[in-house]
Predict the 3D structure of the following.
Amino acid sequence: MSPNTDFDFLLPDVGEGLEEAEIVQWKVSVGQQISANQVIVEIESAKSLVELPSPYAGTVLELFAHEGEIVKVGVAIVRIRRDEPAQKAGNQADSGRTQMLVGSGPRIEDGQSQRRRQRNYGVNVAAKAAASSIPPSPATTLKNTAGLAAPQVRKFARELGIDLGALTGTGPGGSITHADVEALAGKMHSESTFSKTSDNSRESRTPIRGVRRAMADAMVTSAFTAPHVTEFVTVDVSASMELLEKLRAQPEYAEIKLSPLTLLARAMCIAAKETPEVNSFWDGPAQEIVTKHYVNLGIATATERGLLVPNIKDADLLSLKELAGAILEVVERARAGRTEPAQMSGGTMSITNIGVFGIDAGTPIAPPGQSAIVSLGAVVKRPWVVAGEIVVRDVTTLALSFDHRLVDGAQGSKFLFDVAQLLEKATHFLP
């Protein structure tokens, strides 16, 4: 293949079953000279923000998609005139092979991925950009500034309508932090309260994209394909709260964030061994019930991009201390927009903590492919009867939603009762 060959960079599947993604920010402009492995665009999928590098050095000829546009996998997003022969990555347009990100290695596609790549998506081509002799606009210059802010900070700023050029970063090397954006947003809000309240606009519209779109699709799929049943139990968790206080005072737990959620997660892993039906999967095409002999525990996490349910692999094999650390890790990664694709697949059962919002109980929906989810309500002081006496105790309400095709009422009740007993007695959490 000769040098100086034009090729179209196709939006790749970055290894998470991606079907489409939003063009968040172009890192290059038409006419710009780029090097191999230079980041050319930032995309947002349903699960994470990803920066895509160019497999070749060359010159940017055309940008085929606007920022904010949703593009299907396999569609050309940029055309580059290569300065040197291909050495690393193939491309459907010039080699007949599936394009790969630099350093990603070969990927084995399943039948679903192959069928997806055979679809005729068509190319939504934007108008050709201006000639390279025209200097970039101030906005483009700002967006191409390296190290100005992390991807999740830039995303947060866009959602609030904050111009990063108006900020002076307080982070390392003068980078803009999440706190910097929040501070300016608060100032802008206080200065514009009157103008907002007197605005004639009575409604606003937000595009349904990314995580929120994926969450909505998943919840609809789950709710209308799996017959959900929800059971409730109110339990005295005073012993669990006392255990947490004792553990927090121990040096080995000094850096570990312990909470009622930690104990509930451990209780679910223990109880699932006695009622494996709650940790199973309904395989409709094969007409089989798949019982999982391991627990990949999903942790429902509210993030700026919407609800995510990353899961902890083999959570049933972890000690209480290890489980607490794993929960903190997946939650922090999800809120920072750094959840790995592997953490978003393979979950077997899930947990959601609605108590952090001051809610006593709810009817959660199990993620698709899972048979059960438990919600933890707020832990509050309530009058409780103990040995015939009314005393003040720490009380919470647990709700178990399960797929009635896999779990019958007796099995669901036993599992929920076992979880409640473990929390009430707090005697089985430590080795």
About this structure: The domain at 151-197 is CATH 4.10.320.10 (Dihydrolipoamide Transferase).
